[in-house]
Design goal:
disordered N terminus, homodimer, 7 helices, mainly alpha, 3-stranded antiparallel β-sheet, Arc Repressor Mutant, subunit A, DNA-binding
DNA sequence: CGGTATCCGTTGAGATACTG
DNA sequence: CAGTATCTCAACGGATACCG
């Protein structure tokens, strides 16, 4: 039913918007890291292997902007910033859990499809490439 | 439970992969267009306002490669190509229907969060920009 | 009709160095 | 500690022209 509605209004801008936000390289893994509770910037940095400081900052800002993540500066003597999921972020995470489950259940089908597709393309161009 | 598992294996590559594929500009709307049945290339082109031939081709190739869409060349006198969802593609679409529903239900919360966030940033930089 | 080839501007992402 | 600044490279997306 939601799909029919989306079709009638031609495309579904809100879902596209969401998927583009969450379809970047680090957003989902960051949200997942925050599932187990509040984390500091450097905790997230260490837990996300391969991310740079700059990209983590951008990722967190984007998530914060959409209301999925909350940033709290703890006023101590030393600089201390804590990130946590908002209620909306937790809701998003439970949506993502469905996606994760689906991706896991169907990963072999996707893998096989790719192998098959790439093999055919390989055949088509093998003479030209050689 | 799937999230816990994903956390333990550190990140969820299959879901990230899926979201990046489906997080591009045209994949979801293309899949939605194919929900109502087989479509020809130019039907999809006309139904997707703003897309170019090249991008539609790339979008369809990617969807085909992952096994979500099937391409069939109809051997008539004139060139005729039909695209349709595979079973896997239909399954993906029903997953996406959940995403579409969520995005629709929470769009105001996201919108408000953005307005608030942007207003604060505006304040912070208004003196510098003026 | 259903594509490819080419070019080109914009955005995403990483490395590195510096700072309140 | 938690960022910002700057630079660089690659990927994405669009315009246009051509082709079997």
């Amino acid at each position: 039913m939601p799909i029919k509605a989306a079709l009638e209004t031609l495309a579904c801008p809100y879902a596209s918007d969401l998927l583009r936000r969450v379809g970047d390289k680090w957003s989902v893994s960051t949200i997942i890291l925050l599932e187990s509770g509040t984390k500091r910037f450097n905790e997230l940095l260490k837990a996300s292997e391969g991310i740079s400081q700059r990209i983590l900052t951008l990722t967190l800002r984007n998530l914060e902007r959409d209301g999925f993540v909350e940033r709290a500066v703890i006023s101590n003597s030393t600089l201390h910033v804590e990130y946590s999921l908002t209620a909306l972020g937790a809701s998003l995470l439970s949506l993502m859990s469905g996606v994760i489950k689906w991706a896991d259940q169907n990963r072999d089908l996707v893998k096989d499809a790719r192998l098959k597709f790439d093999a055919i393309r390989e055949d088509r161009f093998s003479s030209a490439n050689k």
